[in-house]
Write a structure and sequence with these properties.
Blueprint (H helix, E strand, L loop, with lengths): L1 H17 L4 H17 L2 H19 L7 H13 L3 H18 L7 H15 L9 H4 L4 H22 L5 H8 L3 H14 L1
Length: 193
């Protein structure tokens, strides 16, 4: 509790000396958020984190690695508040920054990815690399068929050289070298995933 008071007193002083979003003021906000989280005061921590994120983004940009930890803290708070979609989006953003800028000190990327995967499963979302109408953003069958048509020659060659597919419709179409039937069968199967 004393640490919270110390940080709350330091922030106005840092703002007066160096500006509202100066490095010392932002660091004090980060420390205040951490202390509030440790005390279990997630409501106040959330308000501090939102202000910290806004200020940090304004000064250092939206992809600065120093945003990763506050984003992950805010994700946990949002999940605890029953907002898993928001938590997922925040973790996705934090991981994206890590992948682009590198893993910041004090951040466990593997843990962030595990948390995001857990949320993805609880939300019933498909894996990001799965080809479905929903995950590729292609809602109609024609668009999905078009995507599959680009890969069918490779699939035919791979199956002819490397082994038969498990789906009998696809196996028959491949044996007949009927690309249209392969595309239709694969599209139908993918839409059911």
């Amino acid at each position: 509790a004393q640490a919270v008071r110390d940080f709350e007193e330091a922030i106005p002083r840092f703002e007066a000396e160096a500006g509202r979003f100066s490095a010392p003021a932002l660091e004090a906000r980060r420390d205040l958020a951490r202390a509030l989280i440790q005390l279990g005061d997630e409501k106040r921590a959330e308000a501090v984190l939102l202000e910290l994120l806004e200020g940090h983004q304004d000064v250092f940009g939206e992809d600065d690695e120093e945003l990763v930890q506050p984003l992950s803290w805010l994700a946990r708070i949002r999940e605890d508040a029953g907002k898993p979609e928001e938590a997922y989006s925040l973790l996705d953003r934090a991981i994206g920054i890590c992948e682009g800028e590198g893993e910041p000190i004090g951040v466990d990327l593997e843990e962030l990815e595990e948390d995001r995967e857990r949320l993805r499963l609880s939300l019933g979302r498909p894996p990001p690399d799965r080809w479905t109408a929903e995950s590729t953003g292609q809602a109609d069958d024609d668009a999905l068929t078009e995507v599959m048509a680009a890969t069918v020659p490779d699939l035919i060659e791979r199956f002819l050289l490397g082994g038969a597919p498990q789906n009998p419709v696809i196996a028959r179409a491949l044996a007949d070298r009927d690309e249209g039937a392969v595309v239709d069968a694969l599209s139908e199967r993918l839409c059911r995933l």
